[in-house]
Amino acid sequence: MTAKPHSALIIVGHGSTVNADSSAPTFDHAAEIARRGVFGEVYCAFWKEEPSLRQVLHMVEANDIYVVPNFISEGYFTRTVIPRELELSGPVTQRDGRTIKYCEPVGNHPRMTELLLRRAAEVAPGVPPEKTSLFIVGHGTDLNENSAVAAKREVQNIAARGVYAEVLNAYMEEDPLIAKWDEHAAQPNVVIVPFFISDGLHSYEDIPVLLGIATESGGAASATDKEIFRHNPYQLRGRSLYYASSIGTEPLFADVILEQVAAFDAVHAATVSA
Hints:
This protein folds into 2 domains: about 5-105 and about 250-270, Rossmann fold; about 110-250, Rossmann fold (3-Layer(aba) Sandwich), CATH 3.40.50.1400. The chain is built from 9 helices and 10 strands. It has helices spanning about 25-35, 55-60, 75-85, 110-125, 145-160, 180-185, 200-210, 225, 255-270, and strands spanning about 5-15, 40-45, 65-70, 90-95, 100, 130-140, 165-170, 190-195, 235, 240-245. The strands form 2 sheets. The protein has a 5-stranded mixed sheet, sandwiched between helices. Helix 5 links the parallel strand 6 (about 130-140) and strand 7. InterPro entries: CbiX-like (IPR002762), Sirohydro_Cobaltochel/CbiX (IPR050963). This is Cobalamin (Vitamin B12) biosynthesis CbiX protein.
């Protein structure tokens, strides 16, 4: 994309008060974008940790500001929390001599399909996809309805490519349950990709317990928990099971963030100057 040396980029994540790994991918992607020198300033901001959404605009010197939510789907946080905390009036907010441009969340980008396929291939190298069941795992429950919608969309997109024998949705807290993966999968190889922004207790502990490849530890994620991704394949319930880390840890998310900025410019070029 075109360099924007006089503009600032703010990448917004959820964050966590108990899990440092929650914000790690957001900081990693910000560091990569800053390294490329595309923007004059690059910042992270979070709902549940520092720097907070209410602080971040005070840190920015530029008058032209792009905000990209590092979220899997549109929902309460992208539609309500972030606009409220940053006092945004819409996609373009003019305030105090500044122009704040609110981009689409990363999970809406068409490249999510490509990144999920990439992650699945990386975690199970050499495994024939025509003998593999691929699961895209979301959280589920009414509190995360839009996340489930996003996961279903990606399953449809991947299935349409005809790469894997079957592509399935599964959830932690609603049907079809990932705990019953062996009842849903018909193939001898099973690949599990969590459709989350970051690794944390869901990917280190909750999903592995539901899969049957780990037992509950009842504590914060540790170095031992993180080894869960390094022991593939798991021989379980008569299948070879491959478990990937969350999709949001994929380094190419930095490119997706920049592409969401470019997409904003393409749509709103007539409304604001670049």
